[in-house]
Amino acid sequence: MDLTKEPGGNESVQGGSLIAAAVGPEEDRLFTSNFVLSSLANFANALSSQMLVAILPVYVITLGGGQADAGLVSGALAISALLFRPLLGWLTDAWRRRPVVLIGTSFYGFANIVYLLAGSIPLLVLGRLVQGFGLSCYTTASNAFVADIAPVKRRAEAVGIFSAAQAVGLIIGPVVGFMLVRSIGFQRLFYFNGGLTIIAFSLLIFTRERRQPWRIKRRRWSPRTGIVALDALPVAWMALCMGVGLGAVHSFIAIFATSRGIQNPGFYFMVQAVALLVSRTFAGRLADRHGRAIVIIPGCILMAAALAMLPLAHGFPCFIISASLFGIGFGSAQPTTMALLIDRIRPEQRGLATSTYFTGFDVGFIIGTVLLGAVSEHWGFAVMWPIAAACTLLCLAGIMADRRRSSTAQ
Fold first, then answer.
1. CA distance 42 to 269
2. pLDDT of amino acid 217
């Protein structure tokens, strides 16, 4: 397979470069109606999801559950997403991106109906399973959709801005979620979340598909060719390692911060998301100009440092520092790994490759929620956070594997 260099020193399939040359300079325009509407919908879905991420572990405790139960409820989302991703990755390539995005957003809404009816931990797990299917559809297809509409020369920037729209939801979601719970209760919060998914669905109705799947000759689905994209495995490993750290933070930082006297743990998520948004405004351009590794490596190191310092956090300032480091690290590394993934994969395999990437992320998230939840319950947070940091740092092994694989392909 012939490879050629793209801006930023990254290899890409030659066909992608030929397409970029053929479409002309007008295709360098990033802010099309498709991109803007998709980004706004990404914000609405992120706001809805992040409020749940912040408050559901606390809701589990109010229902009489423990830390392991909180981890199970959080991890059920990733377990469900993991089960469906292989089929949905192939379906996104064989069918279209947009219908799968709409299905995913719909199931976000259905999940809130389940949460409204849930008065026990098993029903909360069911709701997370429903939302996990929606997550599998939405994240797989929406990222492939953005990859289709993004100009090749501005690919990392496009992924970064799309992720930044999500980051805005991450910024305000946790704080707003805790404020709403205290003022109107959990039940009305689920109504509010359902309304956000309706807004996202309405925005996505007006987007249009760019690619024409009927012009692509494709193999039928089989376990050998339709479950994972082999070229995506090194980047999927990076996603797995980042998922461990993110899963631990999402599931346990609110409980941990409350145990250390922090009144509103949502501020950790808010600071983290502000830092994430700031980093995504420059990380994409830096990666386009100087290469993916120069952004991914420092990002993973910052994430690990943020987790490792948490056992020493006994006051608000330490939590703020940790949140800032984690936000900058994740905000830099995650969208850049997505751009690296797109560099390595042919356009007709983007759906499957995105599925492989998020499968790795789901596995990491499950480890960070379910397994590390058991660790925290038996040995405490002082042991759990350093383990999460070490797992996150293993992301660097994926960088080396990717470089070795790309040099072999050349």
1. 18
2. 54
The verdict on residue 221 lying in a domain is no
The pLDDT value given to residue 40? 92
Burial class (CB in 10 A: 0-12, 13-18, 19+), 124: buried
pLDDT tens-digit series, residues 265-302: 778 888 887 888 888 778 877 888 888 889 999 999 99
Instruction: Give a yes or no: residue 19 inside a domain.
Output: no
CATH number at residue 362: 1.20.1250.20
Is 272 exposed, middle or buried (CB count within 10 Å of its CB: 0-12, 13-18, 19+)? buried
Task: Give the Å distances, CA to CA, from 312 to 5, 257, 330, 387.
Answer: 45, 12, 21, 15
Contact of 358 with 228, CB cutoff 8 Å: no
Cα–Cα dist 15/61, whole Å: 53
pTM exceeds 0.70:
no
Q: Which of 287, 364, 390 is nearest to 333 (CA)?
A: 287
* CA pair distance 74, 49, nearest whole angstrom: 12
- Give buried/exposed letters for 327-345 (b at 16+ CB in 10 A, else e): bbbbbbbbbbbbbbbbbbb
| Total tally of structural domains belonging to the chain | 1
Task: Say what the pLDDT of residue 314 is.
Answer: 83
Asked if residue 102 is part of any domain, the answer here is yes
pLDDT tens digits, 8-52? 444 333 333 333 333 444 456 777 888 889 999 999 998 988 888
Q: Determine the Cα–Cα distance for residues 314 and 278; give it in Å rounded to an integer.
A: 26
> Is residue 9 left, alpha or beta, with left meaning phi > 0 and alpha meaning psi from -120 to 50?
left
Determine, yes or no, domain membership for 16.
no
- Residue 105 confidence (pLDDT): 94
Q: What is the pLDDT of residue 407?
A: 58
Give yes or no for residue 218 having a pLDDT over 80: no
Structural domain boundaries, residue 296: 32-209+228-409
Average pLDDT over every residue of 336-346: 84
329, pLDDT greater than 90: yes
Distances (CA, A) of 338 to 199, 211, 295, 335, 399: 26, 19, 12, 5, 13
Q: To the nearest whole number, what is the mean pLDDT of the chain?
A: 80
Helix ranges (DSSP H) in 206-292:
233-259, 266-290
Q: In degrees to the nearest 10, what's the CA dihedral of 247, 248, 250, 256?
A: 170
- Residue 208: Cβ within 10 Å count: 10
